[in-house]
Specification:
- By secondary structure, the protein is an alpha+beta fold.
- It folds into 2 domains: 50 residues, Winged helix-like DNA-binding domain superfamily/Winged helix DNA-binding domain (Arc Repressor Mutant, subunit A); 31 residues.
- Helix content is 56%, strand content 15%.
- It contains 4 helices and 3 strands, in the order E-H-H-E-E-H-H.
- Strands 1-3-2 form a 3-stranded antiparallel beta sheet.
- This is Winged helix-turn-helix transcriptional regulator.
- Pfam families: HxlR.
- It comes from Nonomuraea roseola.
């Protein structure tokens, strides 16, 4: 998955992309982002029902910010990990 991935994504796929999050918390966060206008939700009345999520144009305006955070993290994660190790080793 590359930067600026576009398109609709099903709940189960989002769960696979973020395995550390519980289904309950993921659903809460998606509802909040929908309320904030950052995520669009499409319900398909099928059996079983299908729901897809997609970022909105408003959310797309945040992509440069997230890309900057990823770049910073790629550059400095090693330093953060070393700082954590020093902190955890301190008496």
């Amino acid at each position: 998955m590359g930067r600026g991935r576009a398109g609709r994504t099903r709940f189960t796929e989002l769960r696979r992309l973020v395995p550390a999050i519980t289904p309950k918390v993921l659903a809460q966060r998606l509802r909040q982002m929908e309320r904030d206008g950052l995520v669009g939700r499409t319900y398909h009345a099928e059996m079983p029902p299908r729901v897809e999520y997609e970022i909105t144009p408003l959310a797309r305006t945040l992509l440069p910010v997230f890309h900057t955070l990823v770049d910073w993290s790629d550059t400095h994660l090693g330093e953060v990990e070393r700082a954590r190790e020093r902190y955890d080793a301190a008496p």
